[in-house]
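Ticket #4471: structure export looks truncated?
Reporter: QA, pipeline team
Priority: medium

Steps to reproduce: submit the single chain below to the structure queue and open the exported record.
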Amino acid sequence: MIFLFIISMVIIIYTYIGYPVILALYNNKKSSHITDIKKSNVQPELTVVMSMYNAESRITARLQNIVDTNYPLKKLHIILVSDGSSDNCYNLAKLFKYSQLTILKQITNQGKAQALNLAMKHVSTPLVAFADVRQNYDRNTLTELAASLVDNNIGAVTGNLIIQQNQADGASSDPGLYWKYEKFIRFSESKINSVVGVTGAIYMMRTALFKALPANTILDDVYTPMCIIKQNKRVVMANKAFAFDYSSHSVSEEFNRKVRTLAGNYQLMKLLPWINSPSSNPIFWQWFSHKVCRLVVPFALIILVFSTYLITGLFYNILFVAQICFYLLAGLGYIKMKKGLNAGLLSLPATFTILNMSAFWALFKFLFSSPEALWKKH
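Actual output as written to the record:
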């Protein structure tokens, strides 16, 4: 039982503290691989690809946002795919006046992966940027992303997603701290070699490196970067390329989003079996530490509770009580967040617990849901 206690502690501490600390220490001793984007003003032709589903309230403003960036319009193409939309977004997009806009249509809702595959068949520019309807670009975003790709060793580059607060309908009061933690890890991975995954709403790649996505792929923003890395190219982060999003409208919405994302990591292990091999995956350490360990932590947390309960001794008794208190505080934080109130310091245990509950549930979602149910948002 003591052995199980030690193993569970090691997994938990390494995943959330050890790995980020190692990244930070390594980067302090090693010169950065990041391309200095200020050294180049090269702006090749590029295509922005977007998939939309029932986006009539956003599509016109989003297209305008892309056109309003400072990238030269004569070099900027847009391909938009309506993925079985049942509202008026397709017709609204057709009314948008931009000569280099191509609008495609899937009659039925087949998912983002199939929409991207369709769009990529029509891309003829050397660079392609992927965007979502929900987020907006900063004026300099496309220029910042394209500049990083001047380095031929870089196959793709992701940007910096800024999450703004949305307190309507019981929104999560503080998604910022966890997201800042996540971005620190990504930027650190980028400085060492490559990020494990990109932000789907803001990344750019060399068109020639794209591999068609399998049907029902959940995490195209991890599948595609890993395929690029497999082709001996780096995937980096441009910290000055900004996109703007808003937090989930409710705690339950955020929980479902996390379940879907984490189930996608299980799916990736099946779709890309080489990703789990240290000899085949060029960034196996980052993949295992960043993605796989987070799937294991909820089970380690369960073992930790039961092991400290069963092992005799003052230290283990104190640790068991501390865990119970932690989860009680998490429950209080959850109640406040559910009501749209500022949870303050309670948001830390609440966010940690929600994340690991979603990781626990993601395994069952992957094992027992239909392929379509994995990607379809409800």
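Status: closed, not a bug. The export was complete when the record was re-opened. Leaving a note from the reviewer for reference: Residues 2-29 form the longest helix (28 residues).
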